[in-house]
Specification:
Number of strands: 0
Largest sheet: none
Helix content: 55-70%
Distance between the termini: 61 Å
Structural class: mainly alpha
Radius of gyration: 26 Å
Shape: elongated
Oligomer: single chain
Number of helices: 8
Amino acid sequence: MMGAAGVLFFLLFIAWLVFCTIASRRLEKALADVRAAGYATSLSELAPPNLSEERNAARHFLAAFSLHPDPQGCDSIVSKYLANSFASLGDEDKMQVRTMLGKCSTLFEQVRAGRIKGGCRYVRDYSHYEPKIPEYISALQTAKLLGLQAESEVEAGRPAASREFVRDILALADSYDEPLP
């Protein structure tokens, strides 16, 4: 036979089960009412609209990120250059930076090709909450490379070229502007 504690536990379990059932039904009804009023009730519904391939820079930006000379931030030489402004480097370091940047021309071309698309929407799975933005670190590293290139262009007396690299940095920043519908 069940003791008094067993009976009490069983009754509490039944009460909890009834409470959860009633609460779930009330929640579903409230969500249905909110949906009927035209409001989004899930991350998928809040997701920004997709862009057409012709207008979406994401493909170009992701291609640029994959071309980064040190995507994991492990190369101490690349890290050293990204941590300092170009103007603060010595002549030998500047030559090494220019050599490294010369190897980034395809990366820069991809960013520029993306910039002229007019918009950017990275493919995301909004079916569950995931606060991580996988391409963010790559975008930040790419922006730092573009910044070094812009500084190098200024020092070389090419301010117009420098402005274009600054515009590329701004295009990367704009790629994270995802307005709600």
